[in-house]
Amino acid sequence: MRPLTKPEQSAFLHITRRHFLKTCTTGVGGMALGAMMGCNPQLAPTPNVDPLSIRSPHFAPRAKHVIFMHMAGAPSQLELFDYKPTLSKLHGQECPPSLLDGKRFAFIKGVPKMLGQQATFRQRGQSGAYVSDHLPHFAQIADEVTFLRAMYTDEFNHAPAQLFMYTGSPRLGRPSMGSWITYGLGSENDNLPGFVVLVSGANEPSAGKSAWGSGFLPTLYQGVQCRSEGDPVLFLSDPEGMPRSLRRRTVDAINKINQEAYTDMGDPEILSRIAQYEMAFRMQMSVPEAVDIQQEPSYIHDLYGTHPGEASFANNCLLARRLVERGVRFVQLFHWGWDAHGAGRDEALNHGFRDRCKEVDQAMTALILDLKQRGLLDETLIVWGGEFGRTPMLENRTGSDNPFLGRDHQGEAFTMWMAGGGVKKGFSFGETDEIGYTGIKDRVHVHDLQATILHLLGMDHERLTYSFQGRDFRLTDVHGHIVHDILA
Amino acid sequence: MPQDSPTSLLDVLTSKKSIPVFGVLLLVLTALALFDVRPEAPADWMLFFGRFHPLVVHLPIGFLILGVLFAVASTKAAYQALGAAVPLTLWLSTLSALVACLVGFLLSTSGDYDADALALHQWLGIGIAAASWLAYVLHEMGGATLQNWLKPAYWTTMGAATLFLGLGGHFGGTLTHGSTYLTQYMPEPFRTIAGLPPREAAVDIVITNIDEAVVFTDIIQPVLNGRCTSCHNPNKNKGSLRLDTIDGIERGGESGAVIEAGFPGTSELYRRLILPEDDEYHMPPDGRRPLTDAQIALIGWWIEEGAHFDAAVASMTVPEDIQPILNNLVEGGSTEPGPTGIFALDMPPADPATVDALRSLGISVLPLAEEIPFLQVDFLNAPDSLRDEQFAALEPLAQHITWLNLANTNFSDADATLLASFPHLTRLHLEKTAISDAALQHLANTTYLEYLNVYGTDVSDAGLPHLEALSTLSSLYVWQTQVTKGGADQLKTVLPDVQINLGIEAFTPVTDAETD
Fold first, then answer.
1. Residue A146: strand pairing partners
2. Minimum-distance CB partner of B431 among A133, A327, A374
3. Dihedral sign, CA of A201, A203, A208, A214?
4. Best CA proximity match to A230, nearest among A161, A287, A185, A163
5. CA angle A162, A159, A205 (to 5 degrees)
6. Contact A278/A251 with Cβ under 8 angstroms?
7. What b/e readout covers A318-346, taking b as 16+ CB neighbours within 10 angstroms?
């Protein structure tokens, strides 16, 4: 910035505070008029309504709970669900340039070779859906699920794609699906949070905690991470020697001060904080009981393949069932390690990928069947999938004599499946082309999936909004069409 | 500026170039209209520009009315200055009227409009342009100010232009919206004063005896009248097709017959209904609400049975999928979709005081959804030691409760007598409670029940016969009970649609297929 000249300085000296305030009157008056006419109604939430209290959906729902199983890293649909014999015939051939023109790949450079399917596919059950031999348990229940074979997304890297899947935007800052749903519907169980997150695998998902964050919604709606080994919820238990009654008096004192602060300042986040302290107090009793999978009989452990005390996806599935039985609205499971680029053993389609399959296969099948026999599958929507798909081309970062096989990212075609509350059984929606490169029929965008999930819970995705920074936001942003064809 | 003597016509014509140009355009338009020079198959560009007519036509309306207003006002001393604006508005009005006529002519090549109505509107439109032009010329000759013959000529022309505008505009509206557009919703007593027939109802079919009902008149025609004739009527007949009379239907449209008796698949009328919604030939077009599945099925059935205009239902074969639609019509239902099951019942909202009383006991009570009076009741948060009074507290809301979750409570057979007074239950969770077979006998009145969960209770095969009357039951969960496969199969013979879950059958053993 250049320094002011003398005449400019003296000119500015003649503009007084009075002038400034006078020129502001129209703007300030306009803002006041807006507030008086009812713009930004969220600015004054009613203090005596518990923000987590259960609320009615917009219309009669089919499902009351959601279990979302996210396979972080993007599982290869070409090795699991999308049978493409043409691709296997083209194995080893160079990729034609028409498939590479204008596309941006995460790692593929130059002209890659095509990689045939590294799996044997068979048609399963009465629906005849193709499921590979990598998921032998799941293949037995192919008739329970709806496959969305032509899912597509706008992102091709992990963190943005995961954020896109869960928050509707590839950038940080928006609330996640579980937060929106808890915000819209509340929690059934007074003593448990409405949104619980369970993470397994060697790492956390790339998007980090923002994948279950509350964004600009009150922080009360954030996902609570439950761990299946050690302390179930961090920082929840009282220190040694502190009786519960003392904790009660502590919470009461803190909330009394918070209440006074709210009366002074009117910041709605304070109410969220008060509710969180209350919820944390109740959770101290309810969570240890809910996560204690040791209580389960041994045949249940055999069914899921769980090892109590160790962190595993199977433990998390069993935990998810227990949480849904207790009325938790949205349970999000993450399992990391599906990013089969082929750059190392753990990332290879012929090694690490198969281990991942074994880690999830029995557990997710057990979850569906266990929910079903308890009569909960009718009211619980289960969704499984990654954040994008993988290329039909071989990704070969380290050279041509790499014993490890892998595929690169692509967002044009991947497969997800849904089961339970309100979706058809034994149904397949969407088709990809002969090599699984892109979807050609009945494509479903991530926003469409989000709209459909909200629809099954009885919420109109266009009406579940929150006013922030001057406009109404919603999970599906300004997109999203409900996929009616998969609704039962 | 006041003048002393009139400017001669020749001077006016030569002083402003636009005047003779407009005059020539006017002659061209008149010739086009007079000799009806319209191609049979209009080119795309003609229709493209033609569709701007509804847009452009508003300009001469505005300019002309403003011009007349200014001219009239300027005769009063206070508004004298406005007189200076009149020539410009008349010039603009002439120009825009000529453009409107031109694109209007292009639009008329589409052939979608009835010839007589079109001709009337067309000539009036040309008349507006001509009168506007003439008024401009007369004004320039001094018509506004001079006291000789010019003055009455000028004012007569202005008056004529206004008259043509009103009439021409009205007929233009009729062409687009139909002659009944303005009067359709006219309330009484004006209707009778205007001599109009009473208001026709929407697609409401009332059939008392289904066998005697004439299929076309009583079933198909109301659908056509409600959903098709807004564009296929005497005044506006898109594709030259009229669907408001039997004759019109039989004659078909510009691509030929629309009905091939006995073959809905090759009947254009039916084919267009079943095209994908985003297909450009799908009917109804342009994102208008599509016909319901029931309506499409009825039309297909009518065509397949020979498309007779006088046949009654009794003389036709009624296939399986059509019968329920016909039954629905007899019961006063319509072919438009509507709520089913309990949602079709008329129910006042529940008493808020009773609901609050239940909530204070720790029971979760909530409407099923906004605007739905039925309630879901959940004992999940209620204290473990429930007393009889708490179950009995549900009684006042017996008519409203549709989802009831009593799982994990000490609900027993004695309490189950309550269930007999809950007729609108659709989902009932009784898993892990203290009930046994005796409780199920109280479910005889719950005729809307779809879901029943009794896993982990003492229910056995003996209790299942109590459920045989529940024809809407679709899911039954009996894991960890005394119910056997035999008992379940027995129930399925009476209720073939019910899915009974006895628990997981063991997985078939899986051998490792992986090799490295």
1. A418, A427
2. A374
3. positive
4. A287
5. 75
6. yes
7. bbbbbbbbbbbbbbbbbbbbbbbbbbeee
Within B141-267, where are the H helices?
A: 150-177, 190-193, 221-227, 246-251
Integer Cα distance of B456 and A358 in angstroms: 31
Q: What is the DSSP letter of A435?
A: T
Residue A407 corresponds to which tokens in the numbers above?
Answer: 């595929």
Burial of A127 (0-12, 13-18, 19+ CB in 10 A): middle
Does any CB of chain A come closer than 8 Å to the CB of residue B290? no
The tokens describing B379, both together, are 């004992």
The residues that bridge with A465 in the sheet, in sequence order, are A474
**Which parts of B74-143 are beta strand (E)?**
none
Of A260, A319, A274, A307, residue with least CA distance to A67:
A319
If residue B356 lies in a helix (H) or strand (E), which one and from where to where? helix B352-360
The single residue listed with the structure tokens 């009360």 is A220
**pLDDT tens series, chain A, 488 aa:** 788 899 998 988 888 888 888 888 888 888 888 877 766 655 555 555 677 788 889 988 999 999 999 999 999 999 999 999 999 999 988 888 888 888 888 888 788 889 999 999 999 988 999 999 999 999 999 999 999 999 999 998 999 999 999 999 999 999 999 999 999 998 888 889 999 999 998 888 899 899 999 999 988 899 999 886 777 888 888 888 889 899 999 999 999 999 999 999 888 788 888 988 998 998 888 888 888 888 899 899 999 998 777 789 999 999 999 999 999 999 999 999 999 888 888 888 888 999 999 999 999 999 999 999 999 999 999 999 999 999 999 987 766 677 888 999 999 999 999 999 899 999 999 999 988 999 998 999 999 999 999 999 999 999 999 988 888 899 998 898 999 889 98
C-alpha span between A296 and B507 (Å, rounded): 19
Q: Which two tokens stand for residue B172?
A: 């233009």
- ipTM summary value: 0.84
User: Which residues does chain B have within 8 Å of residue A190's beta carbon, measured at their own beta carbons?
Assistant: 381
CA distances for B145 relative to B75, B94, B137, B225, angstroms: 9, 21, 14, 57
Sort strands B427-429 and B401-405 into parallel, antiparallel or unpaired: parallel
Q: Which residues of chain B have pLDDT under 70?
A: 1-4, 189, 195-208, 278, 286-289, 330-339, 384-389, 505-516
User: Dmax of chain A from CA atoms?
Assistant: 89
In A109-157, where does DSSP find H-type helix?
136-139
Chain B contact set for A57 (CB, 8 A):
369-370
Structure token digits, residue A323: 């949480």
- Between strands A407-410 and A389-394, the pairing is antiparallel
Distance CA(B28)–CA(B129), nearest Å, equals: 12
Nearest residue to A99 via CA among A413, A442, A416, A431: A413
Please provide the average confidence, as pLDDT, over all residues in chain A: 89
Q: How far apart are CA A238 and CA B191, in angstroms?
A: 79
Closest CB from A188, A350, A365 relative to B516: A350
| Tokens (6 digits) for B52 | 């701007």
Token look-up 């009806």 returns B36
Q: Which of A57, A58, A137 sits opposite B510 (nearest CB)?
A: A137
DSSP-based helix, strand, coil % in chain B, nearest 5: 50, 10, 45
| Cβ neighbours for A486, distance < 8 A, ≥ 6 positions apart | A146, A148, A418, A423, A424, A427, A429, A452
User: What residue type is assigned to position B229 of the chain?
Assistant: T
Residue with tokens 């593929």: A108
- Chain A residues within 8 A of B477 when measuring between CB atoms: 373-375
State the Cα–Cα distance between residues A41 and A204, nearest whole angstrom: 37
Residue A126: which of A424, A442, A431 has the closest Cα? A424
Minimal C-alpha gap between A22 and chain B (Å) = 39
